[in-house]
Amino acid sequence: MAKTTIESLVDGGRASAGPPLGPALGPLGINIGKIIEEINKKTKDFEGMKVPVKIIVDEKKNFEIVVGTPPTSSLILKELNLEKGSQKPGSEIVGDMSIEKVLKIAKMKREGMLSEDIKSNVKEVLGTCLSIGVNVDGKNPKQVIEEIDEGKYEEIIG
What we know:
CATH topology of the largest domain: Arc Repressor Mutant, subunit A
Number of domains: 2
Number of strands: 5
Shape: elongated
CATH class of the largest domain: Mainly Alpha
Strand order of the largest sheet: 1-2-3
Mean pLDDT: 91
Number of helices: 7
Largest sheet: 3 strands, antiparallel
Structural class: alpha+beta
Order of helices and strands: EHHEEHEHHEHH
Low-confidence stretches: none
Helix content: 40-55%
């Protein structure tokens, strides 16, 4: 059962039969339009971001599409409608987001994260907020992490 796997970065909701996908899929003799349509359906929530996708094709031309999630920093910037993070994190703050949005991103990224529990996932997202100059609920993300450890956000995070 030989399978061919093609990995690529596509624009969320806007993959096309042009490069990089078309030339990679063409030699496999499969319906490229059908694959592109499914990729776009699965990635539409990530519009405006680069999304990692994996297309697995077997010898019977059956295919499976596995969609990764964009980097945590991209998800944070999209939530805040920002182009880029701070050039001087720590001294320059480019945005502020709610703990609820941090939780939303942690849930989106959950499968690809190192830790198993949601509290740790939230702390990972807070670490990214810190590194790109984004405060949470008007506070430095380090302070929010301390407050999570003290049990302050139990009702939100669980």
